[in-house]
Amino acid sequence: MKTYVFSTAIFLITAVLISCSRESGIKAEYRLIANKNIVSYAKRFAIHRTDSCTIVRILNPWQGADNVENIYYLVKRGFNISVPDTSAVIYVPVQKIVCMSTTHLAMIKSLGAEHSIKGVSGSEFIYDSILSRNARNGLIKDVGYESSLNNELILNIRPDLVMIYGIGSESAGYVGKIRELGVKIMFNADYLETNPLGKAEWIKLFAALYCKEAIADSIFKSVTDLYLKYKNEITANACYRPKVMLGLPFRDTWYISPGNSYISTLINDAGGEYLWGKSISSVSMPYGLESVYLRSLDADYWLNTGSAVSKRQIPIIDSRLASIPAFIKGNLYNNNKRLSSAGGNDYWESGTINPHLILKDIAAILHPELYVDHELYYYRKIE
Amino acid sequence: MDRNDSIMLSIDSLRIGYGSSLLPSPLTASARRGELVAVIGRNGIGKSTLLRTIVGLQLSLGGSVRADKKDISDYSQVELAKKIGYISTEIVNVSNMKVCDLVALGRYPYTNWIGRIDENEILEINRSIEKTGLKGFEERYISELSDGERQRAMIARVVAQDTDILIMDEPTAFLDVISKYEAVNLLSDLASDGKTIIFSTHDFNIALSHADRIWLMLDDKLVEGAPEDLVLKGLFEKLFKSEIVEFNRADASFFLPDRSGDSFYIEGEGLLYFWTKKALHRIGCSVTDKKIIPLIKTPESLEGTWELVTPESTFSCSSLFDLLRMIRKNMG
Amino acid sequence: MRKSGYYKESLHKWHERGNRSYIFILLGCLLILFFFLDIILGSVYIRFSDLFELFTSGANSSISTIIFKFRFPKAITASLVGVALSLSGLQMQTLFRNPMAGPYVLGVSSGASLGVAMVILGFYSGPGTSGMMEQSGWILVISGWLGAGSVMLLMMFISTRVRDIMTILIIGIMLASGLSAVVSIMQYFSNETMLKAYVIWTMGSLGNLSSDQLKVLTIAVLTGLLLGVALIKKMNALNLGENYASSMGMNVRITRTLIFACTSILAGSVTAFCGPIGFIGIAIPHVVRNMFRTSDHKILLPGTVLTGAVVMLGSDIISQLPGSESVIPVNSVTALIGIPIVLWIILHNKKISGLG
């Protein structure tokens, strides 16, 4: 009896001591988090470097998320750091990755790490020819779409990380299964960034994953410099702000990007006025065809005309579109100049890390006198 | 006066059923103008099937059905509808349908492409409504009618259809006793107007008391004739024979043959004797002609008392109910 | 035969339907009113003065564009859809003697949905499909028609083989469910762009018909309407069920075929052009039966098509969210209107306002 009490006491005391030390461990982490976030433009993730590991925080990774934060600890291979949550440890550099979006591919490739891509979703839409070929050869597997993720295939690949982007909180459900089985999941919310530079900045996330911070920083710096340079040039020299409309209707509803969106920011920075620039909404809004039509009568330019490649396709969708002044004047431009044969659009792939090129394209469209020699890269005129 | 009583409907070696014959033998029978024919048979023998086959709702498997000397397959559908009218066992309960609408439907074979009801049709419809005693009911909704009234409305519809032949499947089912007799009276009326009416029924008494002709469907054949002829031929005993019930040819009644109870002698006569005897039969006792003990004395009049004389004692009962109770109590 | 005054009066006593014409006049006025409202209400409020100006001097071209290119065709589409679906619903409820039957019990709409799904969800990529979100209107219409037409032929074939009308109803419902299941499988394997496009299609849209498409829809609905009128007598006979109708001289086989054809033309065309719009077909016949308190299709048919058009126009007005730029899908509005109507009628009448 006495020995029983004694050993229990010892056990309890030890437990308390251990937990105390763990407390201080956590406190240490939090102190570090208060340190500088190296991410400046992007709003949906943060990176903190510590001497032992890199801490990545993904913030509100889906539409409508509030106060959601996923923390990951990126630890160099071969090292062993104690962290509050061991399941959130990712050993870097990542050697095998599965990506759910072609945006991710472009960023990885720019860092020279494309050999690590082992699985994608929607492989037929890859623009990059080498990656596309690899997908056809089976070097990169197609793991299916969100709701029909091929879990077995993913497990077979045994990736270090699966990078997904969620449309809603139910995405968490889709990945629950493979997460249970030990596969690491990271939400990538770059598509939610409304600032083009913020979107491009996600390259720093991949940099952290591949230990290529230096390359990424230099890429990002040059992109930012060029972007800001163009922006200033435009602000200084553009004489007036042409009005811009976007998109195409589906049936009798027109989904309009809100004022605080990626494309709206680009148009604004390019010296244009987006006709719905004043609307505040977080998602695209279903507007009636007639009200959009009325406003479109003011538009000087019509950009991003869906997947149209020629002018005559537009009245086929709806004959009334042919009486829109921008259509009649022929000021139609679409961002599908770089299309693969299967329909993959490089605008969504490398475009994410080349916002300066997109900006220049749009500026050249809206203010032809500014960049006379510029050949459109992502955009083309719709004839 | 020589009234026309030609054969309006005849079936000849008719085979009916679904895929396989219900009756092993073919059916042959006929019905004349102005006759009220009752089709009788045990449950499941195929009365409904026979009627449906005659109307043309079901294909026969052999033999022929002739209406007014012409095979029914030689009639067009509209012509046949003008010849034969039909009421099934289906309970029709359409909401928002008035009696006049229902009866007007009977004019279907006569109206134009949109079913317009003109002066002529209104005349016919009014006639049918009067004939079936539904005058004043025209604006009533059929869902608000009693069963008897609704059945009369259905009959009115078929009368408006102005056919020579009426086929009805159990027209008196679900009706109370009075409505039953009213309905059959109506049918007799229509028959005397010259229509040929063929109806199936389980109501044996009605068939016996009103039908001109009976089509009796037995397991192995169909026999037709006047009801009394069939009784005398002993056919009803054949039909109704079972372990539980028997048909008494003498007074056209049914009884339970198990008379394992005691025997009694009844002193009395007339109505009181008749009903006392019936009561005893009901509880399984028998009645002898020889005077014995136990003995029952019927009262002189209804206000009096019955006397039950047993070997042990004598009881006085004010009603047959008490009498039977006494019998049960004391005789074991 | 000379009819005395009294006799003639008693002849007509029960045949007078005087008060019915008032309801028809009312419906006619409502139709005109709602049509007018559908034209002047929308994201932009069109004032009477603008309208007046338009008709007198033809000025103000953007208003004229809005009215003639957007609102007018939409109002006509809404009216046609209301007519087609409610008539089709009436026919199905009478034929099957089932108060919950509607235009889609034969699986016509599911067939159209499958055809459209095959285009939108990517299983068909050929001429006309330039991309994922936008499809040329005619491709969707034709694929919808093919789907609806195939189901119609199948159901007609089945109806000649199967005797019992209830069995046919069940087969139709099962077929509809089966086709929906196939579409679900297709949805499962699609990415979100295609999915969204398909879902938007299922929400119904009245405003995207080109003038050619509108002409075709008008012809289809008028054809169905004429056929429906020709079937009035048979539908009245069917009130008592197929057996009685047959005994009164109606050919069941031909009637079934004609009614199926009529419903398929009406419901199939609407679905092919506008997507599957629900609840109108089921609710309106009940409202009309309750209003007129008759089972005579000579009255029910015109009553149903008028009421259907009125309610559909009303639904369109609401779905435009007058005054705001946004719109809500017309299917939601018809559901929000239709469901309480059906509930009200069922609960209000002790006997279900149906046919059995």
Please characterize this protein's 3D structure.
Chain A is of the alpha/beta class. Chain A contains 13 helices and 16 strands. Chain A folds into two domains: 25-219, Nitrogenase molybdenum iron protein domain (Rossmann fold, 3-Layer(aba) Sandwich); 238-381, Rossmann fold, CATH 3.40.50.1980. Chain B is α/β, with parallel strands linked by helices and 332 residues long. Chain B has two domains: 7-225, Rossmann fold, CATH 3.40.50; 263-331, no CATH class. A six-stranded mixed beta sheet of chain B has the order 8-9-10-5-11-12, with helices on both faces. Chain B has a five-stranded mixed beta sheet with strand order 16-15-17-18-19, covered by helices on one side. In chain B, helix 10 (270-282) links the parallel strand 15 and strand 16 (286-287). Chain C has one domain: ABC transporter involved in vitamin B12 uptake, BtuC (Orthogonal Bundle), CATH 1.10.3470.10. In chain C, 73% of the residues lie in helices and 0% in strands. Chain C has helices at residues 5-12, 18-40, 48-57, 61-96, 108-120, 137-161, 165-188, 192-202, 211-230, 232-238, 242-247, 252-274, 280-292, 297-319, 330-348. The longest helix of chain C is centred in the first third of the chain and has 36 residues, at 61-96. Chain C is globular and about 65 Å long. Chain C starts with a helix and ends in an 8-residue tail after the last helix. Chains in contact: A-C, B-C. At the A-C interface, strand 13, helix 10 and helix 11 of A face helix 4 and helix 8 of C.
